[in-house]
Amino acid sequence: MPTLKETLAARIPKFRREVDDIRHNHGEKVIGEVTIAQAYGGMRGVKSMVTETSALDPNEGIRFRGHTIPELQKALPRAAEGEEPLPEGLFYLLLTGDLPTEENVAEVTAEWQARGTLPEYVYKVLDALPPQTHPMTQLSAGIVAQQPESVFVRRYREGISKSEYWEYTFEDTMNLLARLPALAAYIYRRTYKGGKIIPADPELDWAGNFAHMLGYDTRMFRELMRLYLTIHADHEGGNVSAHATHLVGSTLSDVYYSLAAGMNGLAGPLHGLANQEVLRWILHVREELGGGVPSRQKLSSFVWDTLNSGRVIPGYGHAVLRKTDPRYMAEREFALKHMPDDELFRIVSTLYEIVPAILIEHGKAKNPWHNVDAHSGVLLMHNGMVEHDFYTVLFGVSRAMGVLSSLVWDRALGLPLERPKSLTTEYIKTII
Ligand SMILES: CC(C)(COP(=O)(O)OP(=O)(O)OC[C@H]1O[C@@H](n2cnc3c(N)ncnc32)[C@H](O)[C@@H]1OP(=O)(O)O)[C@@H](O)C(=O)NCCC(=O)NCCS
């Protein structure tokens, strides 16, 4: 069986030729136009970059290398004890474009186990930060602290050809992904559990071992991590964590600098931080409405009060999606299977039924439907992980797989420094 790296090495030259041919022969073909509203409005819908690993259809949601989430739940290899896909399989798919076999997945698991030890100095860097430092700050610091280990940087200094860049970016990617669970688990343990490290279990898969190092040794939590880390990995190239990683990577910054940039973007409340905001809001709803599962009517007036006070309903709306996020549905299925009677899940479920109609009547949000962040928090709470500030770190560990797969391909295709043109309002006044 060819290794993951050999499979990539075989794929890259052909795809590079295809892309070179497209750029050379069709480079002048127009794929869109840009309005003033888009230039001021966060570049929504501007087609200006290429990302191979996944594509987002506004009505259907994400496809990873052409496959929907429900398809992958069936097609990707699973752990012996479970029913959820192994994230290693998704990583293999994102990187190569091929659905992996059990053996392909076992190879990634084994590689990550072998490379997964976090260097001693990273613990010291984290220990130097005050314990109340936000877990995302710790994640970013812990990633960038490992930058001196970059194989790419060492080989670049020695002088390598451009066609070899991807190989060392791949090595850095494998090392960093292998160590992320240990890093994230230590952040959790030092911030909330007195700092006691739980050593890795070499018998477990990447996500299962992550659950173990966090201190959650139940089958349900291992399964939750397998699902969670699979579905959050990638959401095409324009979202902030993917775009920031790609942008910084386009300077030939290594994966440590690039991923840290992506994680800093993920830490914003309109992006990855939204899952903790959602949970806070749901707990607040429950408290304000006197505990238990409030009636539809009470929930409905609470939603209206939130809107009328000028705030958004967290967990609803999306910059691109125009239907319920399939990641939300995968999490809902998980809850229905494992914890249908959970009180917070029942609140989320009632909101699932009533909020879209309210947002439609309210008339502002372009997408009144549920996004992934409306659900993840209650799954974690049910399993005993009550530290909301940590949730975005879980998202980050997953997202790293998608954005770093893309970075390997950026190097493989020799994509250039990203440098769009900006305008001044003074200039815009001259053209209107
Ligand atoms: C995700 C989000 C940031 C997308 O932003 P966007 O692309 O600018 O969204 P829209 O184009 O639909 O916004 C149009 C208007 O609807 C409002 N709107 C969007 N989602 C809303 C929501 N969930 N509740 C109330 N109002 C909402 C916006 O605030 C905006 O109002 P404005 O014109 O007064 O500024 C936005 O929907 C939001 O803030 N959602 C809540 C936070 C959240 O769940 N984030 C996680 C995303 S995965």
Characterise this structure:
The protein is mainly alpha-helical. The chain is 60% helix and 2% strand. The radius of gyration is 22 Å and the shape is globular. The termini are far apart. The mean pLDDT is 96. Bound molecules: coenzyme A (COA). Coenzyme A binds next to loops. Coenzyme A (COA) binds next to loops.
Helix content: 55-70%
> Order of strands side by side in the largest beta sheet?
1-2-3
Biggest β-sheet strands, sense, barrel:
3 strands, antiparallel
> Termini, distance in Å?
61 Å
Order of helices and strands: HHEEEHHHHHHHHHHHHHHHHHH
Number of helices: 20
Count of β-strands = 3
Work out the radius of gyration: 22 Å
**What is the beta-strand fraction?**
under 5%
Contiguous uncertain segments of 5+ residues: none
* Class based on secondary structure composition and strand pairing: mainly alpha
Bound small molecules, by name, code or SMILES, are: coenzyme A
Envelope shape: globular
Mean pLDDT score: 96
Keywords:
single chain, 432 residues, mainly alpha, three-stranded antiparallel sheet, 3 strands, globular, binds coenzyme A
Short overview:
This protein is mainly alpha-helical. It has helices at residues 4-26, 36-40, 69-75, 87-96, 102-115, 120-127, 135-145, 151-158, 165-192, 206-214, 219-231, 240-249, 255-266, 274-288, 296-308, 326-338, 343-362, 373-382, 391-412, 425-431, and strands at residues 54-57, 61-64, 67-68.
Topology:
Blueprint: H1 4-26, H2 36-40, E1 54-57, E2 61-64, E3 67-68, H3 69-75, H4 87-96, H5 102-115, H6 120-127, H7 135-145, H8 151-158, H9 165-192, H10 206-214, H11 219-231, H12 240-249, H13 255-266, H14 274-288, H15 296-308, H16 326-338, H17 343-362, H18 373-382, H19 391-412, H20 425-431
Antiparallel strand pairs: 1-2, 2-3
Helix pairs in contact: 4-11, 4-19, 5-9, 6-7, 6-9, 7-9, 7-13, 8-9, 9-10, 9-19, 10-11, 11-16, 11-19, 12-13, 12-19, 13-19, 14-18, 15-17, 16-18
The protein binds coenzyme A (COA).
